[in-house]
Design a protein that fits this description.
The protein is mainly β and 109 residues long. The chain contains no helices and 15 strands. β7 and β8 form a beta hairpin.
Length: 109
């Protein structure tokens, strides 16, 4: 189900509480004054404290998939139902990103 747009002002964390630093290659599409996140964006995670046994294995990036919606600008934007997969430095998926804040004024359909 489509949802509210994700922008660089959204609040997103890895499943272990690390903060996702939102950036986008998008320079044209904005919502509420903030750049809208696009399909294919890869974001950096900071502050993830996840460990496997005694070995630190923090999430370092989020790769987005599923839930991207086409809008009239012919771009696939990310929405609240998008899935952000969190990966460690070795490329192992460690869970999905938690979306806590979205752009309330614009909705994709």
């Amino acid at each position: 189900m489509p949802g509210k747009l994700l922008t660089i002002s959204s609040t997103i964390q890895c499943p272990h509480g690390g903060k996702v630093m939102l950036i986008t290659k998008n320079t044209r599409v904005r919502a509420g004054g903030a750049q809208v996140l696009m399909e294919g964006d890869v974001d950096t995670v900071v502050g993830c404290a996840f460990t496997v046994g005694l070995k630190p294995s923090p999430c370092v990036r989020v790769e987005w998939s599923a839930g991207a919606q086409q809008v009239k600008v012919s771009a696939a934007v990310l929405v609240q139902s998008s899935v952000g997969k969190c990966f460690n430095a070795e490329g192992a998926m460690q869970g999905v990103a938690l979306i806590g804040g979205t752009q309330p004024r614009v909705r994709a359909r």
